[in-house]
């Protein structure tokens, strides 16, 4: 269900929040579905229960889940959750585009990168630079001896 990335610089609870939001927004977790208990998810992920509690509190605060005293946490049935998640992602993308522009990356290179990701269906780690420019840059490269 949730795989943590220990090389990620974000706190563990933020990673859990993001993964749960994705699962909820994509419909993998149905409205009113009971989430794993804090204790069981902590054992499953081998992390402190307080971390799970913090993630659940953040999910509740942002409207993705609700809690029922003595029964647990449940997925909120809200049609706008997917829109909220998409708006958050688009805002992040907007900031990245501004950063790219400030670094002198052209609009064409940005759009080429986006097109590559959509064509591949995933981020394969390839550079966003068009092949012609990569090859041109390699012509002048000095081989390592």
From TrEMBL:
UniProt keyword annotations, A-Z: DNA-binding, Transcription, Transcription regulation
Domain HTH gntR-type as annotated: residue spans: 10-78
Domain of life: Bacteria
One of the record's GO molecular function terms: DNA binding
Basic and acidic residues: bias regions: 120-138
PROSITE patterns in the cross-refs: HTH_GNTR
Keyword DNA-binding part of the UniProt annotation: yes
Chain positions covered by the region annotation Disordered: 120-145
This protein's name: GntR family transcriptional regulator
UniProt organism field: Candidatus Anaerobutyricum stercoripullorum
């Amino acid at each position: 269900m949730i795989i943590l990335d220990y090389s990620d610089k974000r706190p563990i609870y933020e990673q859990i929040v993001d993964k749960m939001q994705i699962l909820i927004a994509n419909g993998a977790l149905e409205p009113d579905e009971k989430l794993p208990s804090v204790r069981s998810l902590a054992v499953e992920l081998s992390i402190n229960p307080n971390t799970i509690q913090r993630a659940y509190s953040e999910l509740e605060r942002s409207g993705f889940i609700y809690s029922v005293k003595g029964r647990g946490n449940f997925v909120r049935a809200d049609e706008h959750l997917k829109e909220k998640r998409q708006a958050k992602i688009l805002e992040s993308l907007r900031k990245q585009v501004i950063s790219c522009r400030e670094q002198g990356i052209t609009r064409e290179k940005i759009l080429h990168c986006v097109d590559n990701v959509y064509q591949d269906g995933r981020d394969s780690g390839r550079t966003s630079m068009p092949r012609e420019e990569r090859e041109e840059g390699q012509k002048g490269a000095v081989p390592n001896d």
